[in-house]
Every structure is written in structure tokens, then in C-alpha cells.
């Protein structure tokens, strides 16, 4: 049962190798999408190319569905996944400022790395800027501390705030994504350059959209929150062991899972 | 830029699986901006070690046991650099240039890149993450603040895009 690291399957040194692997794949797919080029990235803000939104929403929806299904099948314990805590005011203002930085500088942090390795000088300058920006924040931190902690709500999820179950939220997110794809493709056809936009068959897109909605609908009916709660009450230790036995790549399967395994690292990003 | 880029939906699905793999193995998502904050912290630690002591924002990265750069996200960013390099290499996209619109000068573009980077680095610390660490990771686990953050990015960028149109178009 995942998350493997939280059940003590491997140590810190091994986790760094996994980080390298995940990073490699991450950087690879971003470059494939053309996100090492600031003009491709910023085209979304001039309604010409919505690749940024399509990649982001698709990744979010796929990962969200994956997490919820994994939770329903008992493959991952979502209560052990680090949920980013909500600090509503710094997040709102930080988002606005980052948006300005994005359209001004042409990149966001990860894409500037991809730009830099493809020899774009502006990407490297952006990275230097980010290091300076972090330094400025750290120096001003005593002044900003109050605001940095403002609007703290803890590790809340959309389902906690809106008081609906996570399955229903997932369905809404799927519907929103499909709606957003439809709208941005209409906008792209009007303002975009058809020569550079990737094609894709209408049939496949329709089928994928239908699949998304069906997967969301199943989640809304199944209600992953309820199943996770039921599993937690029914002997959590046994569930853990069963999950490990079915996993073939267990490197340290003979070592019993330590339930109290705790990471001391700061997990914020 | 003669090679057509990959279909964004396909890339999105792949990225979703990569994120899911990260959650399954590590119980956390991806991120980038912390790396640059840690680089700044390492710099401060090198030049003025007593400056970043107790109470300073960077002190959370600095322990006696290991270097501030010995961190999960730093290795992830290194990997991202290698992955991007490999992809750019196989499609012959490694080309030294300053990306900008036809009406934009090189030096003004670089100044804007620096300023944008400063805003981005500052904002990422304020919001506790960037487009990957907050928006992608948090949104897929349905964290409330991350959704707010993501829409704020779009709001901030769309609201000011008009003023930077000469930089790109």
C-alpha cells in the first residue's frame, strides 16, 4: 500500500534517486510539449495557444482520478499523502504576483529550467531572478511573517470547504476540464495559428472526454471518502500488510511496515 | 522551432501519471521553486553563515547534518534539467537564443526576464509553492488553497498581459 516511502520501504538516499527519476520524466515531457520556449508558454495569455492550460488541467484530472481510484482499491492511504495546507491570503496574493511574473518573465520555475537547458539565455536570467526573489523574501520575512500566516485553514480540501464528498467534487472537476477544453479550442480556432497547433482526431477527443466524465460519475456514486473511512476503522494494520503482499517489487518486504514512520523533512515546495 | 511539439493532451496524461507515481512512491507531489530558495540559502550560508541563524527564513533549510542542497526537490529539479536536455537534444532544439517577440530588444527582454524571475521567486515563497508545487500537486489532491492559487495565477497574468504584448507578439 502506498505511499511507499511513508511505510518505510526505502530510505532518504533512495528517495533522492526516485526524485531524480521523477524529475527526469517531468522535464522530458515539459520539453516535449514545447514548454522550454517562453513564446509558446505566454501565447495562452494572448488567446493563441492554450497548451499550458490543456497540459495542466489534464495532468490534474488524471492524477486526481488516479489518486481517488487508488484510494478506493486500497492501494494508497490518502491520509498519509502530504496535503498542502491552505493559507488563503498569501496564496491568493502569491498567485497574482506569480501570474505577473509569468507573463513578464515568460516562465514559471520548472519551465525556466527546461528553457535554460535548451540554451535559452532568458531562462537562465529568470532562474537568477528567482534566486534573488527568494533571497529578498527571506530578508523581508520578519515584515511579512504576519501576512505569511494569514488565513490559515489547515490542510483542507475542496470537499471540506464545500461540504460535499470528494467523488462529487471529482465529477465537477472532470466536467469543468471538459468544458474548459471545449471553450479554449473554440478560442484557439479563432485567434490561434493553425499551422503550429497540434491536431488530434475529433473522435478520440470525444471518446476521451466521455471516458473522463464516466470515471468521474463512478467516483461520485462510489464516494471514496466513505470507503476510506470504512477501511480506516476496520483494522488499519491488516490493510497495510495485505497491500504489501500484493506488491511484487517490494524491496524490503520482509521488514514489517512501520506504522509510525515519520518524515522530519520540511515538505513544502 | 521546425519540429512540431507534442499534443498537449497526451503530455497532460503522461504528466498526470508521473505525478501519480510521485504520490504513490513518496506521498508527495513535485515542485521546483524550493530548489532556488535553497540555492539562495546555500549562498547566504557560504558568505555569511551567522546571518541565517535562528529565526531567519532560510534557517529551516540549514541543519548541521547536511547541506541545504541535499534535498528531495533539488534532486527533482536536477532531474528535470537532464530530462529537458535529453528531449531538446533528440529533437535538435538546443539553440542558443533569447526568446522574444519580433519587436523586442535583447537587453530589455533580459531585464524583464530578471524582474519576472524575482517576482516569481518571491511569490513562490509567499504562496509556499509554484505552478508545480502548489498548482499541479495541490490541485490534483483537491487542496483548497492550491485551486485558489492556480486561478490567481491566471488572473494575475491575464490582467497584465496587455502591458507585455510587445515582448511576445
Question: What topology emerges from the helices and strands here?
Answer:
The complex is a heterodimer of chains A (269) and B (169).
Chain A (H helix, E strand, L loop, with lengths): L11 H21 L5 H5 L8 H23 L12 E2 H18 L3 H9 L3 H28 L3 E3 L3 H5 L3 H26 L10 H21 L1 H10 L2 H10 L24
Antiparallel strand pairs in A: 1-2
Helix pairs in contact in A: 1-5, 3-8, 3-9, 5-6, 8-9
Chain B lengths: L7 H19 L6 H15 L24 H19 L15 H22 L3 H10 L3 H17 L4 H4 L1
Description:
The complex is a heterodimer of chains A (269) and B (169). Chain A is built from eleven helices and two strands, in the order αααβαααβααααα. By secondary structure, chain A is mainly α. In chain A, helix 5 runs antiparallel to helix 6 and helix 8 packs antiparallel against helix 9 (202-222). The radius of gyration of chain A is 21 Å and the shape is globular. Chain B has 169 residues and is mostly helical. Chain B contains seven helices and no strands. Chain B is globular. The mean pLDDT of chain B is 92. The interface between A and B is large, with 138 and 129 residues.
In short:
Chain A is mostly helical and 269 residues long. Chain A has helices at 12-32, 38-42, 51-73, 88-105, 109-117, 121-148, 158-162, 166-191, 202-222, 224-233, 236-245, and strands spanning 86-87, 152-154. Chain A starts with 11 loop residues before the first helix and ends in a 24-residue tail after the last helix.
Q: What's the story with the biggest beta sheet of chain B?
A: none
Low-confidence stretches of chain A: 238-266
Radius of gyration of chain B: 18 Å
Distance between the termini of chain B: 16 Å
Largest interchain contact: A-B, 138 and 129 residues
Instruction: State the helicity of chain B in percent bands.
Output: 55-70%
Mean pLDDT of chain A: 85
Q: How many helical stretches of chain A?
A: 11
Beta-strand residue percentage of chain B: under 5%
Number of helices of chain B: 7
Indicate the low-confidence ranges of chain B by residue numbers. Answer: none
Described by strand count, sense and barrel closure, the largest sheet of chain A is: 2 strands, antiparallel
Anisotropy-based shape of chain A: globular
What percent of the residues of chain A sit in helical stretches (DSSP H or I)? 55-70%
Strand segment tally of chain A: 2
Record the strand order, biggest sheet of chain A: 1-2
Number of strands of chain B: 0
Mass-distribution shape of chain B: globular
Question: Oligomeric state of the chains?
Answer: heterodimer
Radius of gyration of chain A: 21 Å
Order of helices and strands of chain A: HHHEHHHEHHHHH
Amino acid at each position: 500500500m502506498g505511499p511507499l516511502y511513508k511505510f518505510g520501504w526505502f530510505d532518504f538516499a533512495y528517495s533522492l534517486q526516485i526524485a531524480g527519476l521523477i524529475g527526469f520524466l517531468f522535464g522530458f515531457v515539459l520539453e516535449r510539449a514545447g514548454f522550454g520556449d517562453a513564446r509558446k508558454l505566454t501565447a495562452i495569455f494572448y488567446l493563441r495557444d492554450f497548451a499550458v492550460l490543456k497540459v495542466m488541467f489534464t495532468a490534474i484530472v488524471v492524477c486526481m482520478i488516479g489518486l481517488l481510484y487508488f484510494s478506493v482499491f486500497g492501494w494508497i492511504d490518502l491520509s498519509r499523502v502530504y496535503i498542502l495546507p491552505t493559507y488563503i491570503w498569501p496564496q491568493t496574493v502569491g498567485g497574482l504576483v506569480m501570474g505577473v511574473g509569468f507573463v513578464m518573465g515568460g516562465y514559471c520555475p520548472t519551465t525556466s529550467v527546461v528553457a535554460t537547458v535548451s540554451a535559452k539565455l532568458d531562462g537562465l536570467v529568470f532562474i537568477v531572478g528567482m534566486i534573488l526573489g527568494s533571497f529578498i523574501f527571506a530578508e523581508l520575512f520578519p515584515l511579512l511573517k504576519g501576512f505569511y500566516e494569514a488565513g490559515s485553514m489547515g490542510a483542507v480540501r475542496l470537499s471540506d470547504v464545500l461540504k460535499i464528498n470528494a467523488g462529487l467534487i471529482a465529477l465537477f472537476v472532470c466536467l469543468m476540464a471538459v468544458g474548459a477544453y471545449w471553450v479554449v479550442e473554440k478560442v484557439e480556432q479563432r485567434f490561434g495559428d493553425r499551422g503550429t497547433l497540434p491536431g488530434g482526431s475529433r473522435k478520440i477527443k470525444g471518446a476521451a472526454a466521455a471516458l473522463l466524465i464516466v470515471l468521474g460519475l463512478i467516483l461520485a456514486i462510489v464516494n471514496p471518502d466513505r470507503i476510506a473511512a470504512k477501511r480506516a476503522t476496520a483494522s488499519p494494520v491488516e490493510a497495510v500488510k495485505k497491500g504489501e503482499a500484493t506488491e511484487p517489487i517490494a524491496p524490503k518486504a520482509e521488514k514489517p511496515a512501520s506504522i509510525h514512520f515519520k518524515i522530519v523533512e520540511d515538505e513544502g515546495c | 522551432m521546425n519540429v512540431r511539439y507534442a499534443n498537449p493532451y497526451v503530455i497532460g496524461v503522461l504528466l498526470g501519471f508521473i505525478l501519480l507515481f510521485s504520490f504513490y512512491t513518496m506521498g508527495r507531489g513535485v515542485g521546483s521553486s524550493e530548489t532556488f530558495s535553497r540555492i539562495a540559502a546555500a549562498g547566504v550560508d557560504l558568505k555569511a553563515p551567522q546571518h541565517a541563524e535562528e529565526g531567519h527564513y532560510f534557517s529551516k533549510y540549514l541543519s548541521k547534518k547536511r547541506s541545504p542542497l541535499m534535498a528531495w526537490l533539488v534532486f527533482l529539479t536536477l532531474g528535470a534539467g537532464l530530462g529537458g536536455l535529453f528531449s531538446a537534444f533528440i529533437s535538435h532544439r538546443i539553440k542558443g537564443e533569447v526568446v522574444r517577440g519580433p519587436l523586442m530588444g535583447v537587453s530589455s527582454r533580459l531585464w524583464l526576464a530578471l524582474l519576472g524571475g524575482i517576482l516569481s521567486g518571491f511569490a513562490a515563497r509567499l504562496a509556499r509553492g509554484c505552478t508545480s508545487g502548489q498548482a499541479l500537486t495541490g490541485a490534483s489532491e483537491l487542496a483548497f488553497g492550491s485551486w485558489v492559487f492556480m486561478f490567481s495565477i491566471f488572473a494575475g497574468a491575464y490582467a497584465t498581459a496587455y502591458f507585455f504584448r510587445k515582448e511576445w507578439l
